[in-house]
Structures are given as structure tokens and as C-alpha cells.
Amino acid sequence: DSGVTQTPKHLITATGQRVTLRCSPRSGDLSVYWYQQSLDQGLQFLIQYYNGEERAKGNILERFSAQQFPDLHSELNLSSLELGDSALYFCASSIGTSGYEQYFGPGTRLTVT
Amino acid sequence: AQKVTQAQTEISVVEKEDVTLDCVYETRDTTYYLFWYKQPPSGELVFLIRRNSFDEQNEISGRYSWNFQKSTSSFNFTITASQVVDSAVYFCALSEARRGGGAQKLVFGQGTRLTINP
Question: Is the pLDDT of residue B100 over 70?
Fold first, then answer.
């Protein structure tokens, strides 16, 4: 158990809908990262927050957004969902922002039908 | 741009054999970090090791060992006396180092699926 929690574990929804994925980092970790894992794209970095501030953006679609709250938990919002958004979404956390190992949550498997 | 290549898509060996997973990386940074993660069939990503670019010492942890060679931009992972429980997908990853608390995304290779047969 990495100490990072993600909810829900599974999510099935229809095209065009909006969902919110939630992540709680390990105790003491200030950085939260979101990654998407799909068969065709592999593991792709989406976005990073550090102590409430956005620090880096990767290949994150405009339909996706995220935020980190004062209690350091983070939410990833996915809207206008398409079939191609079906993937495993991981949250990770680290104590700092550079050079630290990231600990991953169990992931949320999103299926868009 | 940073890139990680794991040329071995799948490897299958018999239990107790030694197996090496290859990882080759590209980066223009002089300071960077390399990682290995394990993804068992249950799906979670498990951190195995971190190595910074200034530390080329090989590392051994039980049956696991890592060989970091800057001259060939490689960070290979060897499992000695493999066991069925080692069956998983293994990912090599790279991140740059930023001063002043900059961002740190992980760039992953495509992964190597390792199957250990009894």
C-alpha cells in the first residue's frame, strides 16, 4: 500500500458526460501528479500540483482540468467524455517537486461507452 | 526532449532463471533521475528504485540489481533467480531535475511484460 488513495476504483459512463476523479496524497506529500495509462499511448503525464499551485502540464486535453485543495487532496475533472478517454488514471504524490520518487495510487479505471 | 526506450516488449522465462530488462534513455540535461516501477497484474504501480545522474554505482537489493551506465545512457534491471511473483510489467522512467523546486514529470518507457513460468 503506497499510502495514496484514489476514488472511485471503477467508473463507467457515457459519451458526453463529466466525471470527477479524486486523489488523496500520502501524508506529508505536497506534490500531486496525474497520469493516464492507455494501451495506445502508454503512461502519459497530465498535470502536477505542488501545495495547491499548478506546476507543470503535460498532454492534458482542454476538456480536462484539475485542482489541488488546501487539504492537499486533488481532483481531476474530465468533461465531454469521448470513447478514447477510456483509460486507467493514476494519481501519484511526492514529498517535493524535483528528484523525488513518486508513489502511485491504485488508479481509477474509466470506461466511456 | 526526453525519451525512454524499453526495446523488449515481452520476456518469458522459466522460474529460477536470471533475466535482464533493458532501458535506454535520452536527455539533454546533465542532472536527471531514473526510476524503475513494477506493475503487477493487480494494476498498481510500485516504486522500485531511484537513481540520480551523478551516482553510477550499481545497486543490489535482494534478488534485484540495477546497472547504470551514463556512457551508454542505459539503466538496466536484473532479476536473479526469478520467481513467479516477479511476473509483471516493468517500467523505466526518467525525470529532469529543476532548481528552485520546479516541476518534475516522469517520462515512462513503453514497459516490458515479464512472465515467469513455473
Answer: no
CB contact under 8 A, A55 and B44: no
Q: Quick check: A103 and B111 CB within 8 A?
A: no
Q: pLDDT tens digits for B25-73?
A: 999 988 899 999 999 999 999 999 999 898 888 888 999 999 999 999 9
Secondary structure of chain A as H, E, C letters: CCCCEEECCEEEECCCCCEEEEEECCCCCCEEEEEEEECCCEEEEEEEEECCEEEEECCCCCCEEEEECCCCCEEEEECCCCHHHCEEEEEEEECCCCCCCCEECCCEEEEEC
**Count of A-B CB contacts under 8 Å:** 77
Q: Residue B92: name the closest of B74, B111, B78 by CA.
A: B111
